[in-house]
Amino acid sequence: MGLLTGKTAIVTGAARGIGKAIALKFAAEGANIAFTDLVIDENGQNTEKEIAAYGVKVKGYASNAASFEDTAKVVEEIHKDFGRIDILVNNAGITRDGLMMRMSEQQWDMVINVNLNFIHACTPIMMRQKQGSIINMASVVGVHGNAGQCNYSASKAGMIGLAKSIAQELGSRGIRANAIAPGFIITEMTAKLSDEVKAEWNKRIPLRRGGTPEDVANIALFLASDMSSYVSGQVIQVDGGMNM
Ligand code: NAI
After folding, report:
1. Given pLDDT bands bounded at 50, 70 and 90, which one contains residue 200?
2. Which of 23, 87, 127, 195 places its Cα 20 to 30 Å from the Cα of 167?
3. pLDDT tens digits, residue range 42-77?
4. Strand partners, 133
């Protein structure tokens, strides 16, 4: 039996990157997986196939995590298809970097909105089940800040405050909420950084390497499973010991 056998997990933005690694890790531990992404294209279909190979139930849903309406609709659909929701990973996120003085309203709104989440739609279901684990994907820049990423770090700090508040609001209903703050993880999001920026990051990481999506997925598994049954309202940095 796996650590998540019999549980259903929603992972947002999981067609690729960290979200995909989390969905695969959860499936390997027996969870049924509902994942979302903006579109379910070839990437998403491949993710579906790779998850199905673990013999669990899986479905990818095209849904925009920035839309309140889309989110409510897709959670209702997932609940109908899967019958329950035990784990929610708010992973979908984007960057639109720039210095504050040059930042447009659109750059600000896009990042803040996408980095919002499914909590509002999922918690009534988790409350009826009297259990649930919510994991918000934050970032080390949400803890320490980062020049040129005011919009992104504000949204990631928001994910941390939100996890802590939900932990307090819904702990008595058996719902836990925590945040993961990854450092420099090698995915398509970070692939667009220049070689100089990457070299600079590596110098600041005591373990002297960028993290892998699996490094993050291992912590997500811990927080999703009963291994962390008495852990709530916490932020776990997955950053190779980086001290920003
Ligand atoms: P990625 O860009 O490789 O993957 C993100 C996925 O989310 C993509 O499949 C994308 O289509 C999807 N997505 C974007 N906007 C969406 C929306 N509105 N609705 C639904 N899906 C949407 O990113 P990566 O690196 O896998 O990041 C995943 C999460 O981890 C993000 O929240 C990111 O901010 C966070 N993170 C990543 C770090 C890194 O170094 N890669 C470091 C710290 C945090």
Report:
1. confident
2. 23
3. 999 999 999 999 999 999 999 999 999 999 999 999
4. 87, 176
Distance 93 CA to ligand 1 centre (A): 4
Q: What is the CA radius of gyration of the chain?
A: 17
By C-alpha distance, which of 4, 48, 53 is closest to 26? 4
Residue nearest to atom 38 of ligand 1 (CA): 185
- Active-site residue numbers? 152
What is this structure's pTM?
0.97
pLDDT at 116 over 70: no
Q: Which helix (H) or strand (E) holds 82?
A: helix 68-82
Is residue 85 within 8 A of residue 132, CB to CB? The reply is yes
Q: Provide the pLDDT for residue 244.
A: 65
> Considering only CA atoms, which of 168, 155, 171 is closest in space to residue 112?
155
Name every residue whose Cβ is closer than 8 Å to that of residue 203 and which is 6 or more positions away in sequence: none
Ligand 1 and 44: CB distance under 6 A: no
In the three-class reduction of DSSP (H, G, I as helix; E, B as strand; rest coil), residue 40 is classed as: coil
